[in-house]
């Protein structure tokens, strides 16, 4: 093919050596960063039907999944555990997913404006108490 700048604006069906055919789409974000994404379909008869609109729908779904994992890591502290036994790790993961579920419900029920609001409220309360007690 050549250089990546030579990709067509809309889409390109190409073969990845050692894999199969993929359709490559070019996107440009708000900051004018160009990104290329490849989509794979195991059924080659559906390649012609795969459009930019379908790509954008899949990309939006992908963003929601990324957002969920970011929330699980940042707000529910999935990475912050200091246990070694298998049962303790399973318990921590269960509690993290349950906390995420509760945050999601609280957001849907309009108790919180978003999943980040609870941490912000707790942090502000802790700051106030510290200033009040020690300042």
Q: Would you write up a description of this structure?
A:
With 135 residues, the protein is α+β, with helices and mostly antiparallel strands. It has two domains: 7-60, no CATH class; 72-135, no CATH class. 47% of the residues lie in helices and 14% in strands. It has a three-stranded antiparallel sheet, with no helix packed on it. β2 (21-28) and β3 form a beta hairpin.
**Oligomerization state of this entry?**
single chain
Strand content: 5-15%
Uncertain segments? none
Distance between the termini: 66 Å
Give the structural class. Answer: alpha+beta
Count of discrete domains: 2
Which strand order do you get reading across the main beta sheet? Answer: 1-2-3
**Number of helical stretches of at least 4 residues:** 3
- The residue-averaged pLDDT reads 82
Q: What is the strand tally?
A: 3
Q: Tell me the major beta sheet.
A: 3 strands, antiparallel
Question: What Rg, in angstroms, do the CA atoms define?
Answer: 22 Å
- State the share of residues found in helices, binned by percent: 40-55%
């Amino acid at each position: 093919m050549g250089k990546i700048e030579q990709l067509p604006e809309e889409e390109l069906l190409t073969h990845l050596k050692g894999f199969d055919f993929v359709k490559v789409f070019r996107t440009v974000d708000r900051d004018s960063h160009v990104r290329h994404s490849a989509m794979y379909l195991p059924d080659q008869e559906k390649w012609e039907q795969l459009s930019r609109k379908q790509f954008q729908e899949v990309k939006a779904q992908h963003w929601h999944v990324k957002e969920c994992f970011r929330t699980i890591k940042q707000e529910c502290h999935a990475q912050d555990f200091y246990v070694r036994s298998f049962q303790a790790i399973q318990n921590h993961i269960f509690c993290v997913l349950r906390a995420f579920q509760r945050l999601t419900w609280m957001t849907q029920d309009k108790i919180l404006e978003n999943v980040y609001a609870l941490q912000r409220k707790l942090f502000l309360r802790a700051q106030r108490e510290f200033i009040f007690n020690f300042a």
